[in-house]
Specification:
By secondary structure, this protein is α/β, with parallel strands linked by helices. It contains ten helices and twelve strands. Strand 5, helix 3 and strand 6 form a beta-alpha-beta unit. The longest helix has 20 residues. The N terminus and C terminus are likely disordered.
């Protein structure tokens, strides 16, 4: 009993020291991508809200990294908890850093986990280090670069979870919404891994449906989660898109947890997801620009032998059966910018 009392007293004293150290004053910083504000909660300065250009983007608890306020981040954390027993390490790729809420959660709940984060905004990274509890530690690597660039650098089958939470304003950048992007996420995943994306959208939810359609085409199992009004197209909001190999998404338990939230959310999958998509097609990467007809032919490589001339009546060569057809033209578009600055997280 005495040792427990001393432990509680020590913990209380430590919190009191931290409370004096944490300022209750808001902090504002103009980064290369946004006006960032950190707003401490009145009376509890260790609880902090990150705003980017006036939008609430992240919430962190400096005392308790397992405390999560935003519903969509809770859906990500639920997926982490259900992919493997709590405490078992995971390799997680975070495409978007923001307030770094999810990487801190993974480190706190899974010793030995490895987190790689792409955050394009260097000012936001520095603000998170100064005000939001981000620090250099084993198992966390933060890279200041575009989210898709980091994803395409990953070795195949090197991650257990790929999470997309990258925005410019409230739009997901267009190059992070396409079929090719989701396919790159799948290449990075191990066979038992999963993909999750946060999309902010307004009716008719064109972007959310496009990302979900890409997940449904790339993965054998796909689902979306959002509030009832958002699912039914009555209001905008966060739509979380999931994808995994057949039978790997723990949808029943994810759905139960989503219904228990402060604002209940619905899980949509299977035939219900097909109806919700309503024929939506995935967005595609743009075709590379065509070369003008009068462009000069490239010079022969000095070390590459030229092909011998063919007689005029020689038959045309057969098509290579292993060469894939040219990709189809881009379908649809969305409003994301080419950057990948990252609010919510």
């Amino acid at each position: 009993m005495a040792s427990r009392s001393r432990s509680r007293s020590g913990s209380r004293a430590r919190h009191e020291r931290d409370d004096r150290r944490w300022s209750g004053e808001p902090v504002e910083l103009q980064t290369p991508f946004a006006l960032a504000q950190v707003i401490p909660e009145a009376g509890r300065p260790w609880r902090r809200l990150l705003r980017l250009d006036g939008e609430d983007c992240s919430h962190v608890d400096l005392r308790d990294p397992t405390a999560i306020d935003f519903a969509y981040v809770r859906r990500f954390a639920d997926l982490c908890d259900l992919l493997a027993p709590r405490g078992e390490p995971l390799d997680v790729v975070h495409l978007g850093g923001g307030g770094f809420t999810l990487p801190r959660y993974v480190l706190a709940t899974r010793p030995g986990a490895r987190n790689e984060v792409a955050e394009i905004d260097p000012g936001l990274v520095e603000l998170a280090r100064a005000e939001l509890g981000l620090r250099s530690e084993r198992g966390l690597r933060v890279r200041v670069l575009d989210a898709r660039e980091l994803l395409e650098r990953r070795d195949p089958a090197s991650a257990d979870l790929v999470v997309l939470d990258a925005f410019h304003g409230t739009n997901v950048p267009s190059h992070l919404t396409t079929l090719e992007f989701v396919a790159a996420a799948r290449r990075a995943l191990r066979p038992g891994g999963a993909f999750a994306a946060n999309v902010i959208d307004v009716p008719p939810l064109e972007v959310a449906r496009g990302v979900a359609a890409a997940a449904a085409e790339v993965f054998e199992q796909a689902a979306v989660m959002a509030t009832r009004k958002t699912i039914r197209g009555r209001q905008g909001g966060n739509v979380v898109v999931f994808g995994a190999a057949a039978g790997l998404l723990p949808l029943a338990e994810l759905g139960r947890r989503a219904l228990r939230g402060g604002v209940p959310e619905l899980a949509v999958s299977g035939e219900e997801l097909t109806r919700w998509l309503g024929g939506a097609r995935p967005f595609r990467d743009p075709e590379p620009p065509a070369q003008p007809a009068d462009a000069p032919a490239p010079e022969a490589h000095p070390l590459r032998a030229a092909s011998p001339p063919q007689p005029a009546d020689a038959p045309a060569p057969e098509a290579d059966p292993l060469r894939t057809a040219s990709p189809p033209a881009r379908v649809g578009a969305c409003d994301g910018s080419p950057g990948s600055a990252t609010p919510p997280s």
